[in-house]
Amino acid sequence: MPTAADRQDMDPRAFRDALGLYASGITIITGHDEQGPIGFTCQSFYSVSTDPPLVSFSVMKTSTTYPRIRQTGTFAVNILAHHQQGVSDQFARKGTDKWAGIRWSPTLAGNPVLEDTLMWLACEIWAEHDAGDHVIVLGRVTEMRPTDGHALEPLLYFQGRYRSLGPDETP
Hints:
By secondary structure, this protein is mainly β. The protein is built from three helices and twelve strands, in the order H-E-E-E-E-E-H-E-H-E-E-E-E-E-E.
């Protein structure tokens, strides 16, 4: 049985590069408080349960946006389409107006749903878990909407770059 002394020291950059080999979608987590709309780009998103309907995302503990969302108790997950690379970049920047030129409409709870996303989910915060330098947030889905018949592709991220799906292979 390996002991703690047998564990390999992890170089943070090497660890990040290794995990970059896992392709993921890109989301914008949004909320709305008395100061207005808030949001951030999030790559660490996944489904958790169908009964009850739960999803999860991870956010850095140093985030200045998530504490405002936490106070409201609700959020929306905007799953980006491939043509929304610029939106992803815009919401990933600190110290800028993330909402400049962004068109959105509110969920029933008032959280922003970005125009032209692949789909969106409205959630209530279900639980939070400490996870090193991140917080894992679980949300119970209260409302959702996939695209209205658009043939959109997801915005994917792989090895530090945006990617797209290749053509479907037929046997």
